[in-house]
Amino acid sequence: MRRKTRQIHVGDVPIGGDAPIAVQSMCTTYTRDVESTVAQILRLEEVGCELVRVAVPEMEDALVLGEIKKRIHIPLIADIHYNHQLALEAIRQGVDCVRINPGNLIHGRKALEEIVKACKERGIAMRIGVNSGSLDALDKQAQMQRIQIRRRSDGVVERSDPAEERRREREQLAERMVNKALEYISWCEELDFHEIKVSLKSSAPLTAIEAYRRFSQRSDYPLHLGITEAGTLVPGAVKSAVGLGILLAEGIGDTIRVSLSAEPEQEIPVAYEILRSLELRNRGVTFVSCPSCGRVEIDVIEVANEVERRLAKVQTPIHVAVMGCVVNGPGEARDADVGLAGGRGKGVIFRKGQVVRTVPEEEFLDAVLKEVASLLPEHEAR
Ligand code: SF4
């Protein structure tokens, strides 16, 4: 069961309540380089990004946000640290949301209050982002003190269980993150501002999971899920799938970002794959392909990768299977909207459970793509 959160809007995208879990990403370009930033956002839109965030480290970056916004089609979120004047300018430029970590605003609560007032005037949302990185050092210090105190009072050096210590440290850190987020929310609520979503990110999935779980027991503001600094494509995708997947399976999370040290366009398919796996979104291709083995009779890895690449921009929900031999091939291919079951240099093409024809290996790709195209609306079939 999805946890019931209050609904807010970022531009025209609803977040929380019964809205679909929204997929977002962040540009890697220098925001002031308008051409590159717009080009990257348009590429993100093509693969299904629904909200995009850009970094605003300097006033030069803030001042081009209006121009960027005019040329894109999805809500624009300004990512601000330290200097609240950047947030105020971003809001003047017409962004749809600002992402703030109130803990690192130089002028603290007073600065947050100015941002809140500006958000209220323009009717836009704010993400309160609490990151474990900024609280981590303090917790480590507290833990060291705890260990030392125990040694003094016992009179002997007692070795604690490292796993137990890590768990305790994690819980403490998560609790501090949640308390900080709730404190910042209360500052906003005192100004009667409620268009808030919250993120509680950590590069350690277990810490993030703990923090999001705790927060969701104490508040109904919508949650932006992310495992921050998750790493390069493979480790980052796996960490995100584990961290986000566990929370989403528990009904927690209203919008997600998969953070990868890779082109941001690569984050989007990973996000949708996580959501499709949990049957939370069904956009695009649900892809089944066998890993191949000693029984394989076609080059299943090459065909599967090429089919996946060629269908990366499809938005219509469609189920495609590419299977290597007769053992599991016909069953999976028959269950798909379009399936290929390989065998001895040729393959059987299925469409909606029916055999359409048998084709030689060199025609696999064209045959699968042709059948998929016949099931897509015209604008996607081209
Ligand atoms: Fe191996 Fe055939 Fe199964 Fe593919 S479908 S993994 S080739 S047995």
TrEMBL record:
It catalyses: (2E)-4-hydroxy-3-methylbut-2-enyl diphosphate + oxidized [flavodoxin] + H2O + 2 H(+) = 2-C-methyl-D-erythritol 2,4-cyclic diphosphate + reduced [flavodoxin]. SUPFAM superfamilies: Dihydropteroate synthetase-like (SSF51717), Nitrite and sulphite reductase 4Fe-4S domain-like (SSF56014). Pfam families: GcpE, GcpE_C. Pathway: Isoprenoid biosynthesis; isopentenyl diphosphate biosynthesis via DXP pathway; isopentenyl diphosphate from 1-deoxy-D-xylulose 5-phosphate: step 5/6. InterPro entries: Dihydropteroate_synth-like_sf, IspG_bac, IspG_bac-typ, IspG_C, IspG_TIM, NO2/SO3_Rdtase_4Fe4S_sf. This is 4-hydroxy-3-methylbut-2-en-1-yl diphosphate synthase (flavodoxin). Residues 287-373 form the IspG C-terminal domain. Its EC number is 1.17.7.3. Converts 2C-methyl-D-erythritol 2,4-cyclodiphosphate (ME-2,4cPP) into 1-hydroxy-2-methyl-2-(E)-butenyl 4-diphosphate. It comes from Thermogemmatispora aurantia.
